[in-house]
User: Fold this.
Amino acid sequence: MENLLQKYEALIQAVDTGSFTNAARALSYTQSGVSRMIAELERAWGIKLLIRGRGGVELTSEGRILLPYVRDIANMQRNLRMEIDNLSGLRSGVIRIGTFTSVAAQWLPNVIESFQASYPGMDFELSIGDYAEIAAWISSGRVDCGFLLLPIEEDFDTVSLGSDRLLAVLPPEHALAKKEVVALTDFEGAPFLLDEKGTATMVTEIFREAGISPDIRLKTSDDYVIMSMVESGLGVSILPELILERVPYDLAIRPLDANPIREIGFAVRDMSSASLAVRTFQEYLMQGQGPASAHVG
Assistant:
C-alpha cells in the first residue's frame, strides 16, 4: 500500500502536469493508481481536492488552500531523504530546476552530463517556463532552484553566472544584413517578430528608451518559430546570443550598436536550507560551468 508521501507526490504531479495521465507518466505509476491515491486522500480528509474534466484536472478552492502545505511536506521529506544520503557523501537525489528555453536547449545538456559524470547518482527534473513562472515555482517549492534574469524583485539567494548579448536576427538577404553593426534606429517601422515570453520586456524597454517604434507583426513564446519566420523573410527580430548557437536556420546575426545584454543568474529560495545537492550544483556552476563559460562575459 502506498505511503502518504506517494499520495502527496501524486497530487502535486497531477496539478503540475494537468492530468492523471501525465502524472502517472512522471511517477512511473498507472493512471488508475494516481486517481486512486488522490481519491484516498480526499476520503481521508473529507475534502474534494480536484475537479476532473475532459481537459484534465484543476484544484478546487479547498485544494488551492491545502496544496502549499502538501508541497512543503513533500519537499521536507525529499530534503530529509537527501540529507541522510549526504551524511555518507553525495550519492543520490534529484535536483528540480526551473529554466527558460535558451539555457535548457543550448547549455544545460552539457552541464548535466558533466555533473553526472562526477555524481552519477544525481538526477534532474527540468521545468521550462518564462521568468515569472520560474520565480513562482521557486517561491512555491515546485522547483529547488532556477535560472532567472538579474536583478530580480523576489527575496531569493542568487549568484550571477554571466551576461548574454542580445543580437539582431535578420533574413540573409535583408538590407540590414549588409551592415556589420545594426543600429536600434534601423528597426523604426520595420516588421518585427517579438519573443513574447522571453526577452519581450527587455526588448520593448530598449526600444522605448531609444524612442523606436517597430511594427510588431507577431508575438510568440517560441524562439524557434521566430527564427523560422525570420528565415522566411517575414520580419526581423532581436534574440539572445545563447539561443542562437547551433541554430538550424539560415540567418544573418549582427551585433547591435547599443550592445544590450541580459545577466543570467542562478536562484534558490534560501541557500541556507537548500539540500547539499543544490549547494554542490551551485558551486559547480560558479567554477566556470555557467553560461558565461560558453561564450559570453
Notes: The two ends are 53 Å apart (CA to CA). Residues 293-297 have pLDDT under 50 and may be disordered.
